[in-house]
Amino acid sequence: LLTAISVERCVSVLWPFWCRCHRPKLLSAAVCSLLWALACVLAGLVYFVCNLGHSEHCWMVLGTLCFLNFCFFTPFMVLSNVILFIKLKRSSWQHHSARLYAVIFLTVFFFLLFGIPLSVQIFLNFFVYINFVFEICLLLASFNSSINPVIYVLAGNYRNSRFRGSVKVALQRVFEDK
After folding, report:
1. Where does the chain cross the membrane (predicted)?
2. Which one, 32, 110, 117, 132, has least CB within 10 Å?
3. Does 79 map to a domain?
4. What single-letter DSSP state applies at residue 54?
5. Is residue 160 predicted with pLDDT exceeding 50?
């Protein structure tokens, strides 16, 4: 989903008129639904193959997940965000929401810092298994999953000396388009 959000935001900045006039209204919902379905299928495969005794194929399933994450989703996310930041730096005539781009940057940064090590470790497990390193990578991935709401709340309350209002108000501040 982070990859889809990054690509959609990049496309909306690169071709804003196409996005407003010609982009199908249900495109985001359809892409998100397909990604959730893919995630459910892959999680079901991991559960069925790795947990129910079909261990000879477990590494193949985990390798496929690692490949999709590390060689497909991550490069698209990083590339779209690099293009987005380059485009925003060059276009000085437009005013952009600094909070939204800070949220995008921090989310991608923490994903690369905490989410990618698990994929790398799963790939390295094909050659050597180190239990301690794998446990640390799982901990980092868990931290990555829980840090996004914190980023949203902090960005929504940016420039306030103390938190005023609710988490809902903070999230509205982050994602509002001014």
Report:
1. 26-49, 61-86, 98-120, 126-154
2. 132
3. no
4. -
5. yes
Q: Domains in the chain: how many in total?
A: 1
If you ran DSSP here, which 8-state letter would residue 95 be given?
A: -
Residues in the chain: 178
Amino acid 93 reads W
| The two three-digit tokens of residue 61, written as one number | 């399933």
Q: What is the pTM of this model?
A: 0.63
Task: Please give the DSSP secondary-structure letter assigned to residue 52.
Answer: T
Q: pLDDT band at 161, cuts 50/70/90?
A: very low
| Residue 44: per-residue pLDDT | 87
Burial of 96 (0-12, 13-18, 19+ CB in 10 A): middle
| Residue 162 placed within a domain | yes
Residues 51 and 85: their CA atoms lie apart, in Å, by 42
Q: Is residue 118 part of a domain?
A: yes
Q: 97-114, pLDDT tens digit by residue?
A: 666 677 777 877 888 888
End-to-end Cα spacing for the chain? 24
Enclosing domain of residue 127: 97-177
- 88-92 CB contacts, 8 Å cutoff, 24+ apart: 88/13
